[in-house]
Design goal:
The protein is an alpha/beta fold. Helix content is 40%, strand content 12%.
């Protein structure tokens, strides 16, 4: 019996070796005779390993070779902070910072000799958006979930974000893919984004439908509407959702055909000027009764001066209730590399510029500023508040809270953590109940640690942070106060005493 088993295994081994050998011979012939790839033609079979190593290289760098602060778009130190915060773990570290404080633009907060005591500290108070809307929004959280659509994100991911946002008391932006049942499921505040294709609020011809707007606005959870003019990943190009991610449910929500690529226009076809934009904002606000604003990456900025001047000519009630400014240094969406790499100002430059232009025209109390773009740690969020942001949105920070490992597969249907895929097998790895807790922990820890920075600077809560509380390292190696580099055009603030 034993000899028969050994003989059978030997035959199986020979068969397997024969199949492998035959396969290698076939690959050798294919590689030697093809003419498209010089490496494979000159080095048959072995040349194919080049693609494998290229594919695996980013993973090896991430885990074995890259230093804590080296990787892009987010380094290990940033990701680890989010991971620990979302898991409710301590974010204290030992033996000093690994951050290099010498590069130009590095923010350094100026601590006060008499920091705020814990019993004197206060949470950032709710801030009202849309005083001229029939239903203003009293936004409770300074830190919120940025636009990520159902389609770009999976069903369990949206579910986790919805429940987590409700637990944390922050808002959830739908992204341009329309309002899904998963957005509403957790009971959180929802911001409905209207993209250039008008998904979720379009008629059969693709134009904006007032009836659909009223249907969306009828949900009490939908607090505001955001017109997306552009986003950080691809300024000047519309949303891109590959055909393999457009299933029947997503197509139904968006109002498009299933299994076909969802490509949005480069801009809103019905918005071609400042007057068109203000008219559209006013129309949506009138139809829905909710606050309305727009989202844009800042590149050319003369139009902002013209926009604020036009608002003052029409009257302050004509203004958008908020402006979301996105950094031009990439985002979660699928996008052409030339746009990700080269188009649009970074948030570091765009945010203070927008704030100053708004304030110059006397609209500080009328238009709220929401900052969005690679703000995933307390220092980055605190800088944005110092620069003048009223609220902070984060997208990729919440993807890390959901378990993202920066596999760079967001534009495909193969996300290994189930966040950006509609493959049921891969989605099973994401438990919405567990991840909702992590989302809430991330928000709460962010607010807590931004508060720690504020207290170190001697103020009671983060909303009291001003430009003089942070300095930026300059080319000569010295740091200078942000209010010196970007002098405020609003009413001068009292200078710091320390």
């Amino acid at each position: 019996m034993m000899f028969e088993l050994v003989d059978w295994l030997s035959r199986l081994f020979v068969l397997v070796i024969g199949i492998i050998a035959a396969g290698l011979v076939i690959l050798f012939i294919i590689d030697r005779t093809q003419t498209q790839d010089a490496v494979r033609r000159n080095y048959p079979v072995i040349g194919r390993l080049r693609y494998l190593f290229t594919e695996l290289g980013e993973f090896f760098r991430q885990y074995f070779f890259a230093m804590d602060r080296e990787e892009m778009p987010f380094n290990r130190a940033q990701r680890d902070w989010v991971y620990r915060a979302s898991k409710g773990q301590s974010n204290t570290v030992a033996f000093g910072s690994t951050r290099n404080l010498d590069p130009v633009g590095t923010p350094i907060f100026v601590n006060c000799p008499w920091p705020t005591l814990d019993d004197e500290a206060a949470a950032a108070l709710p801030l009202t958006i849309g005083h001229h809307a029939r239903e203003p929004f009293h936004a409770p959280s300074i830190f919120n979930i940025s636009a990520m659509s159902y389609g770009s994100l999976s069903k369990p991911a949206i579910r986790a974000l919805s429940h987590g946002a409700a637990k944390a008391g922050c808002w959830l932006n739908t992204g341009e893919g329309g309002l899904s049942p998963m957005h509403l499921e957790g009971g959180c505040d929802v911001i409905f984004q209207i993209g250039t294709a008008k998904y979720g609020v379009r008629d059969k011809a693709g134009s904006l439908s007032d009836d659909k707007l009223r249907e969306v606005a009828a949900h009490e959870q939908v607090r505001m509407f955001e017109l997306k003019l552009s986003q950080g990943a691809k300024p000047g190009k519309g949303g891109i959702l590959p055909a393999e991610k457009v299933n029947e449910e997503i197509a139904e929500i968006r109002g498009i055909e299933p299994h076909q690529a969802s490509i949005s226009p480069n801009r809103h076809p019905d918005i071609n000027s400042i007057d068109d934009l203000l008219d559209m904002v006013a129309h949506i606000r009138e139809v829905t009764g909710k606050p309305v604003g727009f989202k844009s990456v800042i590149g050319a900025y003369g139009w902002l001066d013209e926009l604020f001047a036009a608002i003052n000519n029409r009257g302050p009630e004509s203004a958008p209730d908020f402006i979301t400014v996105d950094g031009g240094d990439g985002g979660t969406g699928a996008a052409p590399m030339p746009l990700i790499d080269n188009v649009g100002l970074t948030l570091r430059e765009a945010l203070p510029m927008l704030v100053d232009l708004r304030d110059k025209h006397g609209l500080k109390d009328r238009i709220r500023i929401i900052a969005s773009g690679k703000l995933v740690t307390p220092g980055e969020v605190a800088w944005a508040i110092c620069a003048g942001a009223d609220f902070i949105n984060s997208a990729r920070g919440f993807m890390f809270a959901l378990g993202c490992i920066q596999a760079m597969r967001c534009n495909k249907n193969t996300c290994p953590t189930g966040i950006t895929t509609h493959d049921p097998r891969l989605q099973k790895g994401l438990d919405p109940r567990d991840k909702a807790v992590r989302v809430a922990n991330f928000v709460k820890d962010m607010r807590k640690e931004v508060g720690i920075i504020a207290h170190s600077c001697g103020v009671d809560n983060p909303r009291q942070l001003k430009r003089y509380h942070v300095r930026l390292v300059c080319a000569d190696g010295r740091s200078r106060p942000l209010d010196e580099l970007y002098p405020s055009v609003a009413t001068p603030e009292m200078a710091p005493t320390a």
